[in-house]
Amino acid sequence: MSAAFFGSIPAMIVLSGILVGISAALLGSFLVLRGNAMLTDAISHSIVFGIIVVWLLTGHVSGPVQVLGAAMTGVLTVVLSELLARSRLVKMDAAIGLVFPALFAAGVILISMNARDVHIDVDTVLLGEIGFVWLNTVTILGTAVPVAVVTLAVVLAVNLVFVLALWKELKLATFDPGLAAALGFLPGVLHYAILTLTSVTAVAAFDAVGAILFIAFVIVPPATAYLLTRRLWLMVVLAVALSVAACVTGYFLAVRWNVSIGGMMASMTGVWFALALLFAPHRGLIAQALRWRTERLDHDCRALVAHLFTHQGTPAMPEENTLRALVSHLRWSEPRARAAVLRAHDRDLIERHEGLLILRPKGTAVVEAIFGRHDR
Q1: C-alpha to C-alpha distance for 119 and 146, rounded to whole angstroms
Q2: In sequence order, which ranges of 229-284 are alpha helices (DSSP H)?
Q3: Could you say which DSSP state residue 185 is in?
Q4: pTM of the predicted structure, to 2 decimals
Q5: What digits encode the pLDDT tens for the residues 63-99?
Q6: Rounded Cα–Cα distance for residues 249 and 2 (Å)
Q7: Which residues contact residue 356 at a Cβ distance below 8 angstroms, ignoring those fewer than 6 apart?
Q8: d(CA 30, CA 141)
Q9: Read out DSSP for 332-366?
Q10: CATH numeric code, 286-375
């Protein structure tokens, strides 16, 4: 990457995405672990209602009052959803699905009725256009800096201070809320604090990247990191790194292929997740398939030595203790039978002698252990 890149329009675009990605990943890691990830979807849509209400009351479409008002709408969405769920008439997922469409629809109606000539566009809120962040700038120390970058940098600083200052409390409240409450850590307050910051981040992000990309950053990198580790600190670090990587690669691929920058950044988070889903060392699909194959081979080995033990030394031994008998009597496919025999032979459980499969002392010990556990 050349030095001319830094300080340029592309740098501002990538930096905007990175700031959103890091801010979202910091909070999203705790939301994913708490099982509240999809609340971000509800918050990101319902803030449209808060934006238009604040505009109707104050006439402002940006600024601290707008951010605070829209953020409170996000918290209101969560509160109403939880109150509805506590009624026991509907479950939490249904409550969320009832509340946020209602607020979003109300916001859209208010926009269409009262703000047709004001720059509040629903498509912009949802999809954003990160490629245009450089058009609205403010001068800082003689340098024109996009307003979105300044706003997102402040939000990132607040989120980072919150997570670092309350790391122990957040960790305990996430994994053991009962113990956190007993120790006086107020897990309910921390829960709403995270959701409030999520709302603030969503409001700060929507003008630059839109709600969809914000949701992708909140959920996908932390979910990807969760496939790779169970250590909280490492999960947060990986989520942040994946967000940054998605922004950088997403920008350059979008330019190369002449497609939406925000869409490509969101797509890259999905690419990282797909790769982790396949290749994660312990929890990936390939690792699970290999583990399942190993477990099946081990099970077949135990079944094999038990079968041989049952017939060894009996008149039926010449017929039963053969590869052919495994196929015909145990109804195994020939490849499965051969794999079990090779596995047992490699483990020194059996030996071959003139076409017969004979237990070795180690194999006999395995069978005795199996029958011994069964007898107990």
Answers
A1: 18
A2: 232-257, 261-279
A3: -
A4: 0.85
A5: 777 778 878 888 899 889 989 988 888 888 899 889 9
A6: 15
A7: 317, 318, 321, 322
A8: 36
A9: --HHHHHHHHHHHHHTTSEEEETTEEEE-HHHHHH
A10: 1.10.10.10
